[in-house]
């Protein structure tokens, strides 16, 4: 309904909307009238609701986009960089400011990182009963659990596509977002210019800068690294999981702001490490190592991709991997001492073992995790592990 000033209310307040079992649907809310309250108080009371508010100083209606409002709760629990930004930085040449022209795996992997990031933020998950084959979690159908925008253009565009599309499996979603699907009716779901959009996002965060470079006859934009500490923090997480056998989850994101407590730090670090290998950018941060050590690290991460790219994750770990086994299943597993002895003998010579990682991830799962989010992680790693036959 148009007001006297010609403005219309297009979106309602999420705070006043009735809860939905699957999707957070926003309902229309009444326009907040002016009064003794300040403009800031009016904005707080309306939240992300009405697009109109009254400015007490002028008496005029002010229109705003509720998606521009910052979710302070999520900002304090999510790291500064998303998964796709971390993988992008690992592949970026620091001074030249561009990615390898011969890397045909990075773009496909970045689409998988987008789905992982949405799952870790509680936006999407695997629908219950969606997977027909238990050993192939990537066949599970993606379900939207929270349609609230994140503020990241790539994540929000993917959310809108998932919200508007029919039920689709996780593997098919990666293909659709990558443009690897031959369905002409859904070609509009492809995410375009992902690398350039990630670079622009990092420029806005002050991590990269934009400059023009001449390549033969053409001027191309490049994005050299400005804030080296951001990439160093990602490198340290890689080294913490590959060159050390000890693990301290809270220290993985110690470089974040003081008021930020990142949830699922071990899970996020494992996702970053495994996707960096699948994107063919992990070796960029291992060049200072000897050839023998570098090969051992790559073999260790390949094993992590295999163990975490299935559901349940690391099923041979003590306690049954992730999700945790029931007490009956654990009792049956404890009656196989030969398998336990074999696992102890196969402990890696370097890097945190899959059993230790899944133990830390199990603690995160029991504290704040959601089963369907971890299923998405397993499904994405399963698809990326088969990349050689897909790309």
Please provide a written account of the structure.
Helix content is 42%, strand content 6%. It folds into two domains: 14-69, no CATH class; 80-390, yeast vps74-n-term truncation variant domain like (yeast vps74-n-term truncation variant fold), CATH 1.10.3630.10. It has helices at 39-46, 72-77, 83-91, 106-120, 153-164, 170-178, 194-204, 228-242, 265-278, 291-308, 327-333, 337-345, 354-367, 371-385, 387-390, and strands at 52-54, 61-63, 124-126, 142-144, 211-215, 218-222. Strand 5 (211-215) and strand 6 form a beta hairpin. Helix 3 (83-91) packs across helix 9 and helix 4 crosses helix 5. It contains 15 helices and six strands. The longest helix is centred in the C-terminal third of the chain and has 18 residues, at 291-308. The protein is globular. The strands form three sheets. A two-stranded antiparallel ribbon has the order 1-2. It has 391 residues and is mainly alpha-helical. Its main location: Golgi. GO terms for molecular function: phosphatidylinositol-4-phosphate binding. Belongs to the GOLPH3/VPS74 family. It comes from Malassezia nana. InterPro entries: GPP34-like, GPP34-like_sf.
CATH superfamily of the largest domain: yeast vps74-n-term truncation variant domain like
Number of strands: 6
CATH architecture designation of the largest domain? Orthogonal Bundle
CATH topology type of the largest domain: yeast vps74-n-term truncation variant fold
The description of the largest β-sheet is: 2 strands, antiparallel
Helical proportion? 40-55%
**Strand order in space, largest sheet:** 1-2
Strand content: 5-15%
CA-based shape: globular
Report how far the terminal alpha carbons are from each other. Answer: 50 Å
Succession of helices and strands: HEEHHHEEHHHEEHHHHHHHH
Count of structural domains: 2
Which class do the helix and strand fractions yield?
A: mainly alpha
| pLDDT < 50 stretches | 1-22, 24-51, 327-345
